[in-house]
Structures are given as structure tokens and as C-alpha cells.
Amino acid sequence: MTSLADRNDTAPKTVAPEEETQTVDITVNGRSRRDVVPTRELLVDYLRSDRGLTGTHIGCDEGVCGACTVHVDGKPMKSCMMLCAQADGCEVKTVESLGTPDALSPLQANFKKFHGLQCGYCTPGMLMSAQALLDRDPNPTEDDVRKAIAGNLCRCTGYQNIVDAILATAAAARGETYTAPLGAGAHPEESEGWIGRSVERAQDNRLLTGYGRFTADQLPAGTLHAAVLRSPHAHARIVRIDASRALALDGVEYVLTGQEAKETWNPFPPVINLGYVLNTSYALAVDKAVYQGEPIAAVAARDPYVAEDALALIDVEYEVLTPITSIAQALEGTVKVYDDWDDNVGMDVSFTEGDVDGAFERAAHVVRHSFHHHRYTAAPLEARVTLAAFDVATGDLRIDMSTQSAHQCRTLFAQMLGMPEGRIQVVAKDVGGGFGIKLQIYDDVLPVMLALKSGRPVLWVETRAENFLSGIHARDYDADLEAAFDADGRILALKADWLGDAGCDGTNRAHGIGQHHVALFYGSGNYKVPAYQARARGVVTNKAPYGPYRGYGKDVANQSIERLIQVAARQIGMDPNELRRRNFIQPDEFPYEILTGPIYDSGNYPELVRMAEEAMGQATFRRRQQAALAEGRYIGLGYAMMLEPAGGSVPNSVFNANETATLRMMPEGDFVLLTGMQDIGQGITTAYAQIVAQEMNVDPEQVKVICGDTDKVPYGLGAWSSRGAAFGMSSTAEASRALHQKLRKIAAQMLELDDPFQLEPRQGGFDGPGGKSIDYRAIGNGVHLWPGPIATVPKGVMANLEETYTWQSKMVRWVPRENGSLSIYTNHSSGCYAVEVEVDIETGQIRLSRIYVAHDCGKVVNPMIVNGQLHGGVVQGIGGILEEELRYDDRGNLLNTGLFTYTIPEAVDLPRIELGHLESPSPFTTLGTKGMGEGGPVGVPAAVMNAVEDALAPLGVELTETPLSPDRMLKLIASARQEV
Fold it and tell me: Which of 191, 434, 623, 701 matches a 20 to 30 Å C-alpha distance to 567?
């Protein structure tokens, strides 16, 4: 590993003679140096490129996210907002000054202990802000901590564990012991074995100390930097493009335009095709731009500053066309996004099963609810980053990228570039958040094309504005549901209609259009529905590409049915949870096949509701609510069930049905696991090591987990649909069991036993009769060294110390029945989400007072990691329902392209999140595990909406549009007051 001193003494880069420069004297982490730097160079770029201190990250370009926070003369500063010249004569400290991987500082150690990091991208900046607080205040309160880190955004953790880590560090410095408040993160009962134990994560030491390996952190010599010219118009023909002035700029190596890209390479391949209408699109717009932000040209230059300069010199003449900016306009069809389409409808599927009409005719109650859900996005702190290098001598192409699925990307690159796939290596090291928007290749192909054309390595780092303009968007749909109930409140039939705005496409650049198809399958949620009729459509518009965001249709279905239950309970005159109980699938009915084909594997929905009601004080809440109302305060309590179909397995797509693991024992008795899964911060490398440790009777420290390199690991489909718990854990467990049996047979041969089952497993080996025993090191040495495999390996056993297992879902059914039913998900986690809110009717502000989650994801392998995933997901769900919104005007211009105007939750916005666990192991996975990464954004939105409606019940407010932003709430409240 490069030493800190070496990294701090990286040779200064060469400055072009024509650039305006300045000499600076800066002390960084105690080491002083004089450098000549470009006058416009930012301090963050100086630290990363000139000093080699890549622990400082860039996440927003505008000083909002805090990932670039360092200390300048003892004060926390945003280094992306300072010129290097402004630090002349200053002392700068970065995260590398706090501790080292083998000697963490107290603050870093507590971040690890309390699981205060996941992807680790925001962590260095968060640590520097936290350390500044501790330096000035040895006894901070929780409010003090939340305010101190309010300028540091985290997209993964939900902040709670970070707050606890900081408070614990302050307490320890005072000689006190810190205990997190009760209920803040209640673990399931810890196991004596490795499965079920909160093992600290293996990768945290390097992420905490600036030794992360994110894509932009380690660049080959001579790397060029890419910048992308994007269409300023949502819909426009490209009349003429002239890049000659850009090419003439000193430092520019190549400019790629759409026509050259089309003549050289193939269009984007579709990633999913279940009978949808497919468009043909290239890496750069050729004749027409179909959304604001679509790439028009790409530049490769000696540094990012020159690359940006070159964009301004590319001359493009546009013929501006009428844009489509709404679902209604798309359906009208007077304007088309794609000239060769019959209309703007990309998907239209229907389903009917049971006597729907008859049920509605005999119903005692018919309830209808419609709403519109807005458009938003994942906004990971690390946007998309790609580094491509082509070896002319060998014909090999290496692509380092921030992706959730290295093998999928490799296959798609091969199809698009027309290259042999074996010549392409895709490497995903540390990934700064994914959440579904880093699955496909899209703009990521542009630096690859520039590397092939220029013969030089090319790095592209997506800016925050680009991430909003052309990154994958989500949600944006209309829902219309109608249910028939009998006199006792039992569902007789359900009708549902979903219409989604898929942006410019949902199959090639992204794959989102199919999520409403998934919503159709899961429209019944956690409930028994004897008759069902549904339709799902997706239309194209002149907006950015459309894809998954911590949910793929399950979020649409869940919010729809849970809102309908709330409205139905009010109209029928019944408590919402009582209505839920009367319609739940019961624990003794699992496995349970719903009408559309999915098989729910296990669960106990009534118990989840009971847990949530007890935790929230349901029995006394109405008295508290009336007392508050008498004081002019509007408080409300809302519940929502959550159903998370996980482990997707979709036919005719790159998202299908297998995952492979290879477990290898070294001659010295330690283990290496190779998995096609991808760690994007969720902690699979630690959890998988725990599984191997459990099956092989060793410590997790003896297991190294390798993922994210297509030249090293077996073909796998990566991290999406919470499939790591089903596919990745099952393949890991099965490979471990197979290798354990092989080792048992070899051990029996070496100990001269006739029956391998005379051996009993023990820690690190086997015990046999008569006091015989053997450890793994003796087996490994015996096979590979002395005396060798001919003597030690029985006949019929492969003479190696590894096993490979490919796990496939038992739940999948790809052949549809006559009604179109399918089963494309492996397991179904569940939960009950409960939220208490207070609504200020004068400002429209919604304050969350309490959040409780009763959760069931089957067998829990690492409770600490599961709790962290739930915390982060809940906060993303809160942001999505309350404040995050991508707003377009009627010309298709995106109005918020930065974190000043697209606001995501900060630590000060949130209460503590309380958790309760229930374990209903799945009978269909090896360990009984189920996916659990998407539950928060799936369950929280409806719970918040239900709570707000409950709070405003005296005014008769019904919510039919999201987000619940203050401006929208004020309009609803004003309208309700007029009616009252």
C-alpha cells in the first residue's frame, strides 16, 4: 500500500505554458511544499491530483454535499468551493491526517463500530466535519451533532449511526460510556455462530482513512479527461455541428460527434424486452435530441478544465421542436418522440382473473382512489464515473467504472462496440452508491469510445448537473384504483390502472418502462384478492431516461394499495389496521400464490402490525391527538404495510436467473470467495465471509471475498433487486457446503479412514476416531505440496481445493398461463411502517416525530448491516415523499440541476428510526434469507401520506399528488379551510 508520506509527496503535474499560474506554499497534513498551479485550479483538485490525497471526494460541484470537506487553518471548509490559490500560506488537513488503516483514530473506530458508513464516499468529509465539532465542543448534544454535520449529505446510512458514532467518541474522551437510545436500532437476538452476528465490515478501515478505491482515485499515466456537450433543448433537430474550433484548442485530443459514433459502433442494445416497443438510440444524438441533456458531442483533453473549455467552442445549430412534457400530451399523440413509432406508447399490458364485474355488482362498498406520483432520482454522492484504457498491442480494453453489475456492463459494451467480450475487462472497485441507477451502460460508453479513438486512457466523471439532467429518473406515474368490499370489509375485487412517464425511453438507455408491468403483478400487496383486473402502460416523453430507484414497480404497487386501504377505511368507517387484518394473507397460508402468479414464500403480517401498534402507542394516540388539536396542533399517525418482492428473475432481459460463487481454499488453509455479486456499500463482502466462516468452521478474517472484476470472478448479475440475500448468499452457502464435503473426503483419505463421516467438523479442520485430527493447513499442504494429490485425493474427487455453485431460483415460472400470469421474483420480505407527524397548517411544513419499522426479511445474517440498510432506505423514502422532486417546465427544461434546488434529507431533518425484527425464514433459499435493501422507499411514502391525512382529518384533506412539499400542502390546506 502506498504510504501516506508517498501520497503526500506526489510529483506536481505539468502546467501548460499558456495557462495563467500562481506559486503557492501549502502545508498539507504537516508536509509543506511550494507548487506552481493553474490559477483556476480548485483546492480539491490540487489535493487529489497534485498531492495524491484521494480521500477527499467530489459530490456536487457547488459546496452542498460536503464530501470534499477538509480543515483549512483548523476550520472545516468545502474544498470544491476554494481555489488552490486561496489556500496559499495555509495549513490544510484531510481525512488522511486522522488515522491509518492499522491505527484508526477514536472517531474513525467508532464510525466502524456503530456502522456509520456504507458506501464510504461521503465518509471522509463527514469525519472532518465531525472532528471539527469534537475539537471545539467536548460535550455535544445530539442536536449539536446533527447541526454540525448538516452540511454533509449521506445517501446510504440515514445519519443515525453517524450521530451515535460521534456521540460515543465525545463520551469516551470524557471518560464516559455511550449507549444508543433504546429502540434506535434493535437487533434480532445475536447468534453464537457467525450467521446472525453483527460482525464489523472488512472494508471499513480503508474507507475511513482515505484509502478507498473509487474509480477516479487511481489514474494511469497520460489519462485524458472527458467532457460531454449536451442538448439545451428537450426536443430539437440537429441541423449542423462544427467541432473545428474545439479541436484546435491546445490540450484537446479528440472530439467525437454523433455521426461518427453511428458510423463506427452499434446502437444501445435493449436490456429488457417483454413485448415493449423499442427505439434505436446511439451514444450521441445523430439527427435529433429527444431530451434536455442528451449527449451531442464528447471531448477528450489533457485536464477537465480544458475539456470544459472545448465544449464552449463546439458550434451546434438546432431546429427546436415542440416537446412532450406530460403523460396526457404523450397520449394525445399530436407530437411524437420517435418519428418511426405509431404513437408514444412503449408498453401496454393487461390482466384479468376472476369475476371482477360480478364482485363490484354485489359489493357493499366500492372505493376509488387516484393519485399522481412525481419524478425524482437516486442522486448517489458519487455520480457515474468511467475510466477506459485500450491496449493497442494486445487489443484488450479495460473499463473501470462505478457500476452495480460489472458482467452485465461487459456484455452490453461488447454488443455496442462490436468487440469480442473476452477482450473486455470491466472492474468495479469501491462504488459510491448505486440504488438502481448504475446498472446499465449509457453515457458511460463515451469515455470508452474516446479511449478507442485517441489511444489514451480517458476518464469521465459525471457532474452533479449531468446526473440530474441525464441520470436515471424514477417514479412519475398516475395511479387509479378501485376496490369492491363486502359488508365486513373484505376485498371482493380490485381494479388498477397505472400510467408511467418513461422519459425518452425505458428499454435501451435504461430499463424502467417495465416497472409498471411489475406493479401490475403486485397490485394486491399483502392482501387476499379473489378477483383482479389491471392495466399498465408506459409512454415516452421528452424527459431524461427512466429506470429503477431502490424499487422497480413494487414501490408503485405498494403505495397504490396502501393508499387505497387508507381511503377505504375512512369511507367504510373502520380502523385502517383492522381493515388490513381482515384481508391479510395469514401465516398458515404460506407459500401463497396470488392471482398474477408470484408465490409469497413466508411471513406474518398480523404480527408486524401488532408490533408497530405497540411501539407507537396506538392505544393512547387518539387522546394525544385530541389534546394537540385543542392546542391548535395537527398531529397524525399513519401505517403502511410493505411488500418487497426481491431477487428478480426476468425473462428475455439481462436481469435473469442465476448467480455463481466459487470458494477456493489456499494451501495454507485460508479461503477466497469469488462472487459475481457486487458490493456497492451494502456490506456483502462481510456477510458472505460470515457465511463461509459458518459453513467451514473458521473465522471471517480467514475469508477474502473478491467481486467486481470480470477477469477474476464467475459471470454474475450483480447488485439489484435485493438479490444478494437470495442469489449471492445461497450460491455462497452451497459452494461452501460442497467444498466442505470435498475436504472431508480428502481428510478421510489422509487419515486412512474408510468413511468420511467418521470425521466431525471442528474449528479449522476435522476430528476423527481414536484421537485423530487434521486441520485445513495440513489438507492444503497435503494436496498441493507434500505428498501431493495422487496420495491425498480419493478417486472420483477432483484434485483441487475449490468448488463452484450456480444458484437458481426455485420460485421462477417464465411460461405464462393463458391470463399472462408469471412468477419472476424469488422471495418476499415484508414490514409494517409507522410514522407520526405534525403538520404546521400556517407554513405547510411536515415534521416527522417518530418512525418505527417492524421488519421481516427472513433469516438475518448480519443484524448491524440489515439495520443500516433499513435506516438508509427509510430516509430515502422520506426524501422521496416530502421534498425530492425533479421539476420540468412546459418546454422540457429541468428546473433543478443541483443540490441547492433538489433537496435531499439532512441529519437535522430526521427523528431517530426505531426498528423491530421478525424472522420468517424463506423455505426457498439455502439459508432462509430474503432481500431487504428496498423496503424503506417502498413502505415509507404511503405511511407518511397516511399520517399526514390523519393529522389533517379535521380539515378533510385527501392527498392525491406528491411530493408533500410545503407549497403543495399550503394549497391543499387553504382549499380545505375554504370548504370547511
Answer: 623
Distance of CA 818 to the CA centre of its chain: 36
Beta-carbon contacts of residue 907 (< 8 Å; ≥ 6 apart): 145, 146, 147, 149, 150, 152, 154, 159, 162, 163
3-state secondary structure 784-829: HCCCCHHHHCCCCCCCCCEEEEEECCCCCECCCCCCCCCECEEEEE
pLDDT in tens, 622-640: 999 999 999 999 999 999 9
- The model carries a pTM of 0.96
Sign of CA dihedral 672, 674, 679, 685: negative
**pLDDT the model gives residue 184:** 47
Q: If DSSP codes are grouped into helix, strand and coil, which group holds residue 600?
A: strand
Specify the CATH number of the domain 659-807.
Answer: 3.30.365.10
pLDDT at 2: 41
- The domain locations on the chain are 4-97, 217-321+383-431+438-470, 659-807
**How far apart are alpha carbons 46 and 51 in whole angstroms?**
7
Residue bearing cell 456502522: 115
| Among candidate residues 715, 702, 372, the one with its CA nearest the CA of residue 556 | 372
Q: For the structural domain made of 217-321+383-431+438-470, what CATH number should be given?
A: 3.90.1170.50
- End-to-end CA separation in angstroms for the chain: 69
Q: What CA–CA distances, in Å, run from 604 to 526, 586, 590, 832, 852?
A: 10, 7, 9, 11, 17
- Please report which helix (H) or strand (E) contains residue 56, including its range: none
pLDDT reading at 204 higher than 50: yes
Give CA separation, 108 vs 129, 252, 274, in Å.
Answer: 12, 42, 48
Domain 4-97 of CATH type 3.40.50.2000 = no
Nearest CA to 658 out of 803, 809, 804 is that of 809
Residue 656: what pLDDT?
A: 86
What backbone phi and psi angles, to 5 degrees, belong to 249? -70, 130
Please classify residue 260 by burial: count the beta carbons closer than 10 Å to its beta carbon, then call 0-12 exposed, 13-18 middle and 19+ buried.
Answer: middle
Three-point CA angle 436, 437, 441, nearest 5°: 120
Residues 6+ apart with CB under 8 A from 317: 238, 239, 240, 241
166-175, 185-194, 346-355, 839-848 — which is least confidently predicted? 185-194
Residue 186 binned pLDDT confidence (cut-offs 50, 70, 90): very low
